[in-house]
Write a structure and sequence with these properties.
The radius of gyration is 18 Å and the shape is globular. With 299 residues, it is an alpha/beta fold. The two termini are 29 Å apart. It has helices spanning 25-36, 48-61, 77-90, 117-132, 134-139, 161-165, 173-194, 221-229, 236-248, 274-288, and strands spanning 16-19, 40-45, 66-71, 96-99, 143-147, 201-206, 257-260, 263-264. It has ten helices and eight strands. It has a single domain (13-288), classed as Rossmann fold.
């Protein structure tokens, strides 16, 4: 169900919105739309050159845009920590965090931290960044939007979380991607369990099947299919509009929900598995070197 757009609370103008993966595709489209609406947008990207390029393109279209750099390679947890520290000191209040950056790899890649790349970027980096930015998010009674995918329905997380994170055993690109997206859905559910909506609202969203760079550079079947279908896939701006809608939708319609674009949808039953969500949370915290934190609900 979609909340009535006429009931959207207030304007996003002047609100601080952090968008990871903002240099191309869905993230860029989202950042552009937020800038057009007057938000203060932090452009997340792996290199200064890429973020600078995105900033220049948005500034050309929206000369009055309030844009900030959020440089950090999400495959490197040390860079994620530096990014979190910089943003926390720069922005005492963060109204929206869009955890959008994502990768798909047909072959196993291990990061410098010893994690499988897809799981590291799509889940662990966002888990860590969200925790690092919690003080500013809580100060603003902000919201966290986790970009997931319908692919989460094909995952089971049937192995220990650390084994998945380390890329152990037989590697299949589609399974690694699905596991990372289920992790995003479960992270949303546990975040909602630990924080009341009036303190921090959170939502998982499948933005649609979009013509982005996902799968670019791989010749595995999934990558080839995505490239062949690209002419008939939806434009990233369609998904961007959905994410922007979720930055303003009523908090009570968001908290712990799973959305397909601007409409609620029933997720895989795994999202209701409290034990699995808690295990993923605890193991993820251990893997990225975090102490577990108290919650607003005291649970």
């Amino acid at each position: 169900m979609r909340a009535d757009s006429a009931q959207l609370p207030g304007s996003i103008k002047g609100r601080v919105c952090v968008v990871t993966g903002a240099t191309s595709g869905l993230g860029f489209a989202t950042a552009m739309r937020l800038a057009e609406m007057g938000a203060s947008v932090v452009l997340g990207g792996p290199t200064e050159a890429e973020v600078h390029g995105a900033r220049e393109r948005i500034a050309k279209a929206v000369p009055e845009a309030d844009l900030h750099f959020g440089v950090g390679d999400l495959s490197d947890l040390a860079e994620v920590r530096r990014l979190g520290t910089r943003l926390l000191s720069r922005f005492p209040r963060i109204d929206v965090l869009v955890n959008n950056a994502g990768v798909y790899r047909s072959r196993r890649h291990i990061t410098n931290d010893g994690f499988e790349l897809t799981f590291a970027v799509n889940h662990l980096s966002h888990f860590l960044l969200t925790h690092l930015l919690l003080p500013s998010l809580l100060e603003a009674a902000g919201r966290v939007i986790n970009v997931t995918s319908e692919w989460h329905r094909y995952a089971k997380l049937y192995r220990p979380v650390e084994a998945i994170a380390r890329g152990e055993g037989l590697y299949m690109g589609w399974r690694a991607y699905a596991d990372s997206k289920l992790a995003g859905v479960l992270f949303t559910a546990e975040l909602a369990r630990r924080f009341e909506a009036d303190a921090l609202s959170t939502v998982a969203v499948h933005p649609g099947t979009l013509a982005t760079r996902l799968g670019h550079g791989t010749f595995a079947p999934v990558g080839l299919i995505l490239r062949l279908l690209k002419p008939i896939l939806e434009a990233p701006s369609i998904g961007g509009d959905a994410l922007v809608y979720l930055t303003q939708a009523p908090r009570e319609s968001l908290h712990g929900e799973y959305y397909h674009k601007e409409f609620t949808r029933t997720p895989a039953p795994s999202m209701k598995d409290v034990g699995l969500a808690r295990t993923l949370w605890n193991e993820s915290a251990s893997l990225v070197g975090l102490q577990d934190r108290p919650t607003s609900s005291g649970s």
